[in-house]
From TrEMBL:
Coiled coil: none annotated. Residues 1-22 form the signal peptide. Keywords: Glycoprotein, Hydrolase, Lipid degradation, Lipid metabolism, Signal. The keyword Signal applies. It holds the Pfam family Abhydro_lipase. The keyword Flavoprotein does not apply. This is Lipase. Belongs to the AB hydrolase superfamily. Lipase family.
Length: 406
């Protein structure tokens, strides 16, 4: 019983970054000697400047006191030009961080490609990831530091990063979100006056509803209420690199689950992932998230709603003035905020049926890009993503951009 619990628990953790996570499990079983990173190393120094791009580190303080690292990237020539192109903010998904947009070659990685096309690239890193672990009064050892879900990531982290970029550039910005980054974007875009700050957004693996996840493993975990168990166990930070996380991964690969099949059994197949680069990816991913965030995601799967966090009857009444958490009304996203939605036929997390549901509730008609053979990770790490996807994003943004210098 205990072993199967641990196995299922690990699968939960692997839910949204499963290819990486599966490989991580395999790697760590053979070699648990992972290196901690010195705290003063920045993302700019680590991955971006070394590739010859100009990069500066910015710090954004959220309304609830978190200190987020935001990087501003441009190509060497882009930096020399007087005028930069329009700003674009890249918002990563669950268990990932801003580094994920720069993990392949400059010809393959969206972050570099946008900079090479003269965009003023800004890289978001949500609270709790390795690059954004500061707070004005809390330490990341405090359990209160981890008391948030994607709702706070949308209303504080994303919204405050967007305001910050606006204040520096004086221009409406473009947003690119992947996976949980699209949940955050769609929730944030329902706020009043958002069209004064955001011109358009490209949503990769777009998620607002999670009702049609079909993977049996995921459903089983949800039905077992593993999210509640983790919280009841007093675990607030979900960190796969901690001893706790490593032990979990060790035991899951110890005869209980075939780790090589983990990916396919949860997300379906990623067509275009470069397996020989996994060791390098693992120097950066996965990043921590919070147990409460996992719980919020599981609430979405259970209830089929796109709502605020459900605290239970009484606390909902107290906090929201109603017994059920308020929904995010996609109909409030302004028509003038153009959307490109790119989704994959093999993506079992952003299910096609749930994407249709999202489309039905939006006022505008987003541009759609359906990539039949794409799984959840191909959208950021696929070897042919430039031709399949990124070229479309650039064309879409250029057709929306008002800046004539561009
Ligand atoms: C896959 O990664 C290896 C190792 O970095 C690299 O040499 C190779 O060119 C990559 N393949 C593709 C198709 O990008």
């Amino acid at each position: 019983m205990e072993n199967s619990l641990v196995a299922v628990l690990t699968l939960v953790l692997c839910l949204f970054a499963s290819q990486i996570c599966a490989q991580f499990a395999v790697t760590l079983t053979g070699n648990s000697n992972h290196r901690p990173r010195p705290p003063d190393v920045t993302l700019c120094a680590q991955l971006i400047q070394s590739a010859g791009y100009h990069c500066s580190e910015h710090k954004v303080q959220t309304k609830d006191g978190y200190l987020l690292a935001l990087q501003r990237v441009s190509s060497r020539t882009g930096y020399i030009k007087e005028q930069r192109g329009p700003p674009v903010l890249l918002q990563h998904g669950l268990f990932l961080a801003g580094d994920v947009w720069f993990l392949d070659s400059p010809e393959q990685s969206l972050g570099f490609i946008l900079a090479d096309h003269d965009f003023d690239v800004w890289v978001g890193n949500v609270r709790g990831t390795r690059w954004s672990r500061g707070h004005i009064s809390l330490s990341d050892k405090d359990k209160d530091f981890w008391d948030w879900s994607w709702q706070e990531l949308a209303m504080y982290d994303l919204t405050d990063m967007i305001s910050y970029i606006n204040s520096i550039t004086n221009t409406k910005i473009f947003v690119v979100g992947h996976s949980q980054g699209t949940i955050m974007s769609l929730a944030a875009f329902t706020q009043p006056n958002i069209e004064e700050m955001v011109e358009a957004a490209a949503l990769l693996c777009p998620i607002s509803y999670l009702e049609h996840i079909t993977a049996p493993f995921v459903l089983r975990m949800v039905n077992m209420h593993l999210d509640q168990m983790i919280l009841a166990m007093g675990i607030h930070q979900l960190n796969l690199r901690s001893d706790w996380g490593v032990n979990l991964l060790d035991s899951v690969c110890d005869g209980h689950v075939d780790c090589n099949d983990l990916l396919t059994s949860i997300t379906g197949e990623n067509c275009c992932f470069n397996n020989s680069r996994v060791d390098f990816y693992l120097e950066y991913e996965p990043h921590p998230s919070s147990s409460r965030n996992l719980r919020h995601l599981f609430q979405m799967i259970r209830k089929g709603t796109f709502s605020k966090y459900d605290y239970g009857f009484f606390k909902n009444l107290k906090l929201y003035g109603q017994s059920k958490p308020p929904v995010f009304d996609l109909g409030r996203i302004p028509d003038s905020l153009s959307l490109l939605m790119a989704y994959g036929g093999n993506d079992d997390l952003a299910d096609v049926m749930d994407v249709q549901h999202t489309l039905k509730e939006l006022r505008s008609k987003p541009e759609l890009l359906y990539l039949e053979n794409y799984g959840h990770i191909d959208f950021i790490l696929g070897v042919d993503a430039k031709k399949d996807l990124y070229d479309h994003i650039i064309k879409f943004f250029r057709s929306r951009g008002k800046s004539s210098s561009f």
